[in-house]
Amino acid sequence: MRDVLDELLAWWRAGEQVALGTVVGTWSSAPRQPGAAMVVGVGGEAVGSVSGGCVEGAVYELGEQVIGSGAPVLQRYGVSDDEAMGVGLTCGGILDVFVERVSPQDFPELGEIAEDIDAGRPVAVATVVAHPDAAYLGRHLVIRPEGEEPAGTLGSERIDHSVVDDARGMLAQGRTGTIEYGPEGERRGEGMRVFVASYAPKPRMLVFGAIDFAAAVARVGSFLGYHVTVCDARPVFATRTRFPQADEVVVTWPHRYVAEELAAGRLDSRTVACVLTHDPKFDVPLLEILLGEDAPDLAYIGAMGSRRTHEDRLARLREAGLSEDHLARLRSPIGLDLGARTPEETAVSIAAEIIQDRWGGGGEPLTTTRGPIHRHGWVEAAPSI
């Protein structure tokens, strides 16, 4: 929903009735992840995408029906359906799309949810997308971190209690997905499916070294959806003018900055760090913290430099007491071998390595590989709907 929130909120504030289609489950090579959304708006306008173009026409027609009836619908599209070729999902995947009507009457909590997302406050929205009793479909429960009361209800106190516990765990990890329960919220039951959309703050990208390569990495990082911080101890280089697409430009020694952020709990398993200074007086104390015994469990740590610089850096880190296990976490020289030369090309190679680490890709040309193109981190059978 995040991608279409501005348009959705504008119609909601105007009191209009629109349809929101959300991907709530994917299997095999489905082109979009759970949470991808499309809005069928006023005057026939469509915003967003649920499949990259494969089934948008079918979802649009379903959205118009839902606006008229007000009854939510969970629809499966994929090669297992008789209508697969009719809707055009030729990639071989399966996706479940939940289509619901949205208006101030249907979804009164949307305004506060939008405020949380805009302010970077963690919030999750749980929606009943399948249930033996159609009266439960489309019910929403808004979940915030421990200590804050949920808003709305999924139909009973028992259901709400079960979902709140699970959704808070998903929110803490920034995970979005579907959980199955019994009709009354029984754990390990089946019959009710609840889609939990987590809106955690953006993952962080830390870029160290105020150089031209850092400016290109900051641009790519912002494009990929990261909250980008550029850090350098030299105020003449670390300026907003040089890094207009960074969310923050911090002038301090990198190792001091990381120590402060770590102590404040602002680094997590989604954070990526790109060390681009290739200067031992900056790199070594910084990497000692990023790779040491008390290091945060970051998603990615990469360091720029030639192979000679890399070997020298490793020797200095070993002298500082880092073990081979610690050093194995470092991606250096940084980036995939794309033959990159310019700052922009190098930024693409770094981004490619970050994406590869995130999803477990091999980095080979797709023309030389077999099997699913899209990686989801796990494989599960598609439930019946």
TrEMBL record:
InterPro entries: MoCofactor_Util/Proc, XdhC_CoxI, XdhC_Rossmann_dom
Domain XdhC Rossmann: 205-354
Gene3D superfamilies: NAD(P)-binding Rossmann-like Domain
Domain XdhC- CoxI as annotated: residue spans: 11-78, 118-182
Protein name stated in the entry: XdhC/CoxI family protein
Organism in which the protein naturally occurs: Ornithinimicrobium avium
